[in-house]
Amino acid sequence: MAEVELRRISKMYERQQVVNEVSAIIAPGEFFVLVGPSGCGKSTTLRMIAGLEEISAGELLIGGKRVNEVPPSGRNISMVFQNYALYPHLTVKDNILFGLQVRKVSKQDQVKRLEHAAEMLGIAALLNRKPKELSGGQRQRVALGRAIVSQHPICLMDEPLSNLDAKLRGHMRTEIRQLQQELGITMIYVTHDQVEAMTMGDRMMVLRDGEVQQVGRPLDVYNHPANLFVAEFTGAPPMNTTQAVWRSNGAQSGVELSDDPSRRFLPLALGFGPQAGIKDGTPVVLGLRPEALQPLEPGAVADESRSLLVSVQGVEILGSETIVEFKLGDKLWKAKWNGQWPCRRGDLVRVGFALEHVSLFDSQSGKNLAITAGREKGEILRCVQ
Amino acid sequence: MGELRAKWKVNVYAWLLLLPSLIFLLLFTFYPVWQTVILSFHQADLGSPEPFFNGIDNYKQMLEDDVFWKVLTNNLWFALGTVPTSVALALGMALFANKALRGKGFIRTAYFYPTVVPMIAVANIWLFIYTPEYGALSHVMDWFGKGDMNWLGDQSNVMWAMIFMVIWKEAGYFMIFYLAGLQNISQELYESAAMEGASAWTVFRRVTFPLLMPTTMFVSIIAFTNSFKLVDHLVIMTKGGPDNASNLLLYYIYETAFSFWDQGMASALTIVMVVLLLAVAAVQFFGLDKKIHYN
């Protein structure tokens, strides 16, 4: 097993910086996801690891050895391409065995590995077909089969699920994850879909414009986004945000919503403020995840400071959950509630939130200003239950 | 009733749309073809004021005609000399032009250029090149002490000279088809092969060439029919000589029809040529086609 290490890797095209000093250490057997919007440099980074793109600056180490100048075939890596890269004129069997034939693996060994892979993927009945005669999911499996028979300890995947329909995508997500765990290989996986990143990865790296935004376990990234970009990129619907100003007047500190005509004040004492070193009057961005905004019972005593009375703008009832849209200032916010809520446009509802779910970002740099200390513990406790 | 009428209407409409091209096809293709078939069973030379039916006499005569056999063998050698070479050369040129990083446009233009020049002009250029004593090629051969070679006037050289010229002319044209074919092959396939460490030759043999087979098929049919169609250069350069050494079937048909004025024999020769071309195309299409992968 090998470990992949990226040391300040950069890619320049002419004068354009596509990837800027990306560093990461990927442990053996880890499922590592590179995620970001299109054009963020994630595919380029993957292709540099594969050896299909030259590394402009920085070092790439596989198994502790520098491999910048090693050709793709010498890096002990297999790769699954976005369009599967199946040879259209070869049968499934020949497609899977192509690499082994090139590397002159013995015939006996070829047969053994083919049988093993075909059984694992359930494609034994398709071996004599041509790619044209296969469905999208079957082609995907053949591409996986190629990676399996190669027996390389590292596998790279470049948006492998983007050509499948939603249902199959969900299915293949678990299948790929299972396969990776069964084989114990190191997986580096590129996607633009944050759901894939959240559900499949041991760790994920969020990229934007060629720069690393955050690296961490999916839940940590979700709960403690390093900056506004990550906060708005993760989660569906993404985190709600609005402009605010930090007010700290003696006993009470909190934010004043600047987009709100009534300039509502929300006191946020816990963990924020003096400890985080925010000065009075600093412009900040307030963030709240949709699921953190929960409806308050009409009869319940409402805590003014931790709730908002809002007018419903739109409702999406998805069956298992309901997404309620409302305006806060000039921003459209979304709240996600479990179950079916027969709200209607124009209804007045009171939504409450817990203080520990509030995120504050610097309005200039977008950096997360403070992370409350108690939150992580609470999260882990709930996970255990 | 109404349904039938509606069907009629659609049919009439379709036929009307087809009519313009159909008229021209009938007038200028099907009718002459039919007339040629009929004429090939008639004696229609200068000795017979009115053409008269003579059965398969024309065909019988043809089989006994030494010139016909000479011309036919010439043409087969000409096809054998031009088709594989120009196709292979076109493929090589396309691979190179596709890979070249600098001057891609220039290379393509340079390769394609001979195709744009009319055959008559090409023939004149090469006539100068092949001229004995003061031609361009003679000058070059002078350095090797062989300046006295007569390229077009020697029975054993003239066919090679023609074949060389036609390859020069045609390869660039076929290259265009190969370039289009290459562009259709996904880059991912090459990257995948690179990940496996396949050598350039393996990639060509197992990926590029099989995926270009539809193009190869198409181009070889064109090349083959061209080798029977090409006649302009003979008019300018050799008139089929010396002693029919460079004569080809189509030029012989032309001579029979418009120099010897034997219309019946010319028609019979035409039929033979058409049947020959159809047979070869059929073999290529129905025989090889099954082994080719089409996307």
Automatic annotation (TrEMBL), chain A:
In which domain of life is the source organism classified? Bacteria
Q: Which GO terms describe its molecular function?
A: ABC-type transporter activity; ATP binding; ATP hydrolysis activity
InterPro entries cross-referenced by the UniProt entry: AAA+_ATPase (IPR003593), ABC_transporter-like_ATP-bd (IPR003439), ABC_transporter-like_CS (IPR017871), ABC_transpr_MalK-like (IPR015855), ABC_transpr_MalK/UgpC-like (IPR047641), Mo/tungstate-bd_C_term_dom (IPR008995), NA-bd_OB-fold (IPR012340), P-loop_NTPase (IPR027417)
GO terms for biological process, alphabetical: carbohydrate transport
CDD domains from the entry?
A: ABC_MalK_N
Quote any Pfam family the record assigns. TOBE_2
Spell out the GO cellular component terms annotated for this protein, sorted alphabetically and separated by semicolons. ATP-binding cassette (ABC) transporter complex, substrate-binding subunit-containing
Name all ABC transporter domain ranges.
4-234
Q: Which UniProt keywords apply?
A: ATP-binding, Cell membrane, Membrane, Nucleotide-binding, Translocase, Transport
Query: Among its keywords, does the record have Nucleotide-binding?
Result: yes
**What name has this protein been given in UniProt?**
Glycerol-3-phosphate ABC transporter ATP-binding protein
Protein source organism: Brevibacillus parabrevis
TrEMBL record, chain B:
Q: Where is the ABC transmembrane type-1 domain?
A: 72-284
Q: Which Gene3D superfamilies match?
A: MetI-like
Recorded GO cellular component terms are:
plasma membrane
Which example biological process does GO assign this protein? transmembrane transport
Q: Which InterPro entries match?
A: ABC_transporter_permease, MetI-like, MetI-like_sf
Keyword Membrane tagged: yes
Bilayer topology: Multi-pass membrane protein
Similarity comment: family membership: Belongs to the binding-protein-dependent transport system permease family.
The name this protein carries in UniProt is ABC transporter permease
Originating species? Brevibacillus parabrevis
